[in-house]
Amino acid sequence: MKFSAAVTLQYDTIFSPFSVQEWRKGLDWMQASGLDGAELCISHYNDLDVPAIRYELDKRNLGCSTLSTGQARGLEGLCLSGVSDDVVKRTQKRFYEHIDAAAVLGSKVTLGLMRGLGSTHNAGADRAQLREAMLPIADYAQKKGVTVLLEPINRYETILLNSGIEVYDFIRNDLGNPDSIGILWDLFHANIEDRDYAETVAMIGGKIKHVHIADSNRAFPGFGHTDMDAVFRLLYNAGFEEYASFECLNKPSRDIVLEETASWVRHIRGL
Ligand code: LER
Ligand code: MN
User: Fold this and answer.
1) What's the Cα-to-Cα distance from 134 to each of 80, 112, 140, rounded to whole Å?
2) Cα gap 211→208, rounded to integer Å
3) pTM above the 0.90 mark?
4) What is the separation of C-alpha 97 from the centre of its chain, rounded to a whole number of angstroms?
5) 6 phi and psi, to 5 degrees?
6) Residue 124: which CATH number?
7) 70 CB near ligand 1 (under 6 Å)
8) Which ligand gives the minimal distance to the CA of 211?
9) Which residues are bridge partners to 2 per DSSP?
10) Straight-line distance from the first to the last Cα atom of the chain, in angstroms, rounded to the nearest whole number
11) Angstrom distance (rounded) from CA 126 to CA 146
């Protein structure tokens, strides 16, 4: 298993201890903390020099785990369901740009809230529109050798595809189970939506290609009530060798996140 943490390149995020201006400092901290890579929040590609970012990662011996893409939903309204065809087309174009960047960075691409927020009165239509919108993205990713990660997200943020098993069902039965689409299992969302961690890993473990690390309350591990050791043992036993990436709030404090990341990762590697 490899480890990474979120860092943002254009707009601040609550999931990183570093502001946009400090992103290189963030990479220094990841290297010093013994992480293997960085998860990069990228909203768009205006004036973004992807090879220069790759150079900064290489300099520190860091890989790139995935591109976190969701900021463009709030900032630009980009979305793949419950919107006009024109918005879907612009959103697909953005995903093609993310996939091109991921091919340079050797990373995956996350599809989280840009799937849409869903609606109670139009659930079937939302799901059908998402399917149609995702199929060309899956094809493009396949051609470029990149994996797109569909993330189960809890019901308070979207009502479209909440649990791990629901997302697995969508990938298999609606999308036809393309190799280029994997699951991003976020332990905060799973605490709300999945019945049982062991059941989820047993049913969909082979399709999990990335994990977001956060405790039950989205704090740094150890400051909520999830039995993190038990969850990571499940992942090890399932043969999970991809990235697990910190996507927790700066809670209980930014200092604790900065100081405890290295020792927590060492502990999990030693399980
Ligand atoms: C993104 O990875 C995520 O988990 C969402 O909750 C962000 O709103
Ligand atoms: Mn997440």
Assistant:
1) 8, 12, 10
2) 7
3) yes
4) 17
5) -75, 140
6) 3.20.20.150
7) yes
8) 2
9) 243
10) 11
11) 25
Size (the chain), residues: 271
Residues 217, 228: Cα–Cα separation, whole Å? 13
Half-sphere exposure of 185 (CA within 13 A, CB side): 27
**Blockwise average pLDDT, block size 10, the chain, 271 residues:** 98 98 98 98 97 98 98 98 98 98 98 96 94 98 99 98 98 98 98 98 98 98 98 98 98 98 98 97
Task: Give me the phi and psi of 227, to 5 degrees please.
Answer: -80, 85
Tell me which residue range forms the domain holding 12.
Answer: 2-269
- Tell which one of 4, 40, 153 to mutate to probe ligand 1, the residue whose CB is within 8 A of the most ligand atoms: 153
Pure H helices in 33-122: 50-59, 71-76, 85-105
Reduced to 3 DSSP states, what percent helix, strand and coil does the chain have, rounded to the nearest 5? 50, 15, 35
Kindly list the distances between the CA atom of residue 208 and the CA atoms of 14, 76, 93, 239, 257, in Å, as whole numbers in the listed order.
24, 29, 25, 11, 25
Which of 71, 151, 215, 246 has the most ligand 1 atoms within 8 A of CB, as the residue to mutate? Answer: 151
Residue 47, Cβ density class (10 Å: 0-12 exposed, 13-18 middle, ≥19 buried): exposed
- Residue 111 is given by DSSP the state E
Distance (angstroms) between ligand 2 centre and the Cα of 66 equals 11
212 CA distance to ligand 2 centroid (A)?
A: 5
C-beta of 157 in contact with ligand 1 (< 6 A) = yes
Domain count within the chain: 1
